[in-house]
Amino acid sequence: MRYTALLIFISVFTTAFSQGIKLEVDRIAKRYNAVGVAYVVVKDGKIIHSDAVGYNDLEVKTPLSAVDNLFRIASISKSFTATAWMQLVDEGKVSLDDDFGSLIGFPVRNPLFPNKVITLRMLLSHTSSISDKNGYFNLDAINPIKNPEWKKGYNAYEPGSQYEYCNLNFNMAGAALEQAVGVRFDNHIKKQILTPLKLKGGYCIDSLDNTAFAKIYEYDSKNQKFEVQPAAYAPRSEEIRNYTLGYTTPVFSPTGGLKISAEDLARYMIMHMNYGESNGVSLISKSSAKIMQTPVNKDAGYGLALRENKTFVKGKTMVGHTGSAYGLYSAMFFEPQERFGVVVITNGCKQVFEDDEPVLLEEVANYLYGNLISPR
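^ thats the sequence. predicted structure below, dont judge the formating
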């Protein structure tokens, strides 16, 4: 009887504590007029807390879920592309220092530095000198065979010498990945990363349950209201029916198109926190995981689709990535030595920024850290 009473007490206490956490996160979210916020906390390499506040659907007031709702996580998707490349590196099929032009099938050279090889490592670290000036949804943007304006797609500095964030880098990396493996990008990521880790989600809208998608809202400051953004989950069905492997790849957006729940994103994060392994599944080698986490450009703190961040949790240097698209803001950061991490996603808010970082996500992360990871 005493044991049963103890279990009941622990259950009641845990529920009350979780509700207290949720109430405070909800207060933070409301200060920023957030539509909804999903959050997951990892400690000692395990998920210890997962919840959400606010709404998935503003009109019918459907609650948001960290488990059941799939979010287009935007640029955090880049790390999945880089992880898939590191698997090929581990298998000895490719080198990070290979000429990227040989991987993509057309010359990739900065016209101001024609003798400087632009490598796979440079694309995955945004040090390629390639820019988004010609757009990034079509590989012709930088293909000298098809685009007479291709030279405008490069910056005026030597490849490898500087950092500039560029979405085209990763749509090109996704297309080259298809050419390397002979499998459509979304199917390859599912087979090599999502399925082994038992994660739901993917890049292809038509392969997912569209009732699970978290609606994304962008705030219209002129009319002072939130507008739902259906384009975030546009299926691109016609383009996929007429798909050309290694060319049409940007329709899946390797640079930002993955749909996944907050909780499953945290499980993926645990794999990187554990240097490539999770629950007995080894996706990449420890050395490859460390390469991804180590800045290529020290000033930017950016490795291979993972970057250092010193503000997400005050006093901690963490590793991960952020994302923003259509009004959604996402963040996934972990501390591999101390083995903790936080995932925070909002599907829309009247955002306030500081140093180009979404303050809402940082405030939630710091609150969770102080109350769940390192209680004061």
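Residues 5-13 have pLDDT under 50 and may be disordered.
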